[in-house]
Amino acid sequence: MTTPTVPTTPHSTPDQPATPVFFLAGGTGISAETLGNLLLAQFPGLAFTRRKIPFITTVEKASEVVAQIDGAMTDSVTPLAFSTVSDDEIRQELQRTQAAFIDLFGSHLDTVERVLHVNATHSAAALHGVGDTLRYDRRMKAIEFAMEHDDGASLRNLAQSDLILVAPSRCGKTPTSMYLALQHGLKVANYPLVPEDFDTGDLPRPLRDLGDKCFGLLSTPARLSQVRGERRPGSTYATLAQCSFELRRAETMYRAHRIPAINSAKMSVEEMAAVIMQSSRLPDLA
Question: Which of 79-83, 138-142, 226-230 has the lowest mean pLDDT?
């Protein structure tokens, strides 16, 4: 199913229209979207509309996609198409587009084959890890663990976690936990710091023997107040004073217990996950 077109910035004008961007894949499209967006992030002043087209598994479907992409062309705009399609025949059909076609899969495959002295399978299942049952099961178990231990909902088996994210409410614990589980197969719990936790500066009781597994998240008072205000407008919980207090006390707690921390205010989930894994020396289990 094609996702709706969503402008990414409000800055396009008649003189500089938004560039249509298509993410094409034989599977879910997560890889094409992630890698394509990584490249687009290098052009912060430009406007784009993004559309993901997953599960392109036949030449007929590829022909329909080519027509759709070419239909977005104008005299002043050439679409960009990022592809991770692995099937040779389908890729060749997609390459018929008049748009700029960025082959994120095939363009590097020859180099890898040459170095390894082995021909690739060109299999979508291999690309997305479906054929590796152990890895798939590990990711699914990690997601179940993250859901069970989201926002302190369960303290059971905390010691089995690979990582425990600790932060005041609305600093990005949940999406980061889920991303680390889905993309890296890590069992991540997250624990919310509430006002009572700031009275002594000690780690909350369930975490006191697990400090080596903890990683702290922070934000800026303005950003945290904005996010909380969208959830509970007009509440004390969302005031700038309350947010400033909680962030100061959380940072003091992290320092006292030598818990590494990052500021999530201007970081994407992907960036946060990468920094956390590197800082904590966590393996990629997916």
Answer: 138-142
| 36 belongs to an annotated ligand binding site | no
Residue 195 carries which side chain, given as an amino acid letter?
P
The annotation status of 168 as a binding-site residue, yes or no, is: yes
Annotated binding residue 156: no
The 8-class DSSP code of residue 196 comes to: G
Domains of the chain: 6-128 (3.40.50), 133-280 (3.40.50)
Q: What is the mean pLDDT of residues 91-102?
A: 95
To the question of whether residue 169 is assigned a binding role by annotation, the answer is: yes
Q: How many angstroms separate the CA atoms of 122 and 113, rounded?
A: 11
Is 63 labeled as ligand-binding?
A: no
Is the overall model pTM greater than 0.70, yes or no?
no
Is 52 marked as binding a ligand? no
Give the whole-angstrom CA distance, residue 178 versus residue 188: 8
Tell me which residue of 148, 224, 226 sits closest to 191, measured CA to CA: 148
Question: Could you read off the pLDDT of 32-65 as tens digits, one per residue?
Answer: 888 888 888 888 889 999 999 999 999 999 999 9
The residue-averaged pLDDT of 267-284 equals 90
The answer to whether 283 is a known ligand-binding residue is no
**174 has binding-site annotation:** yes
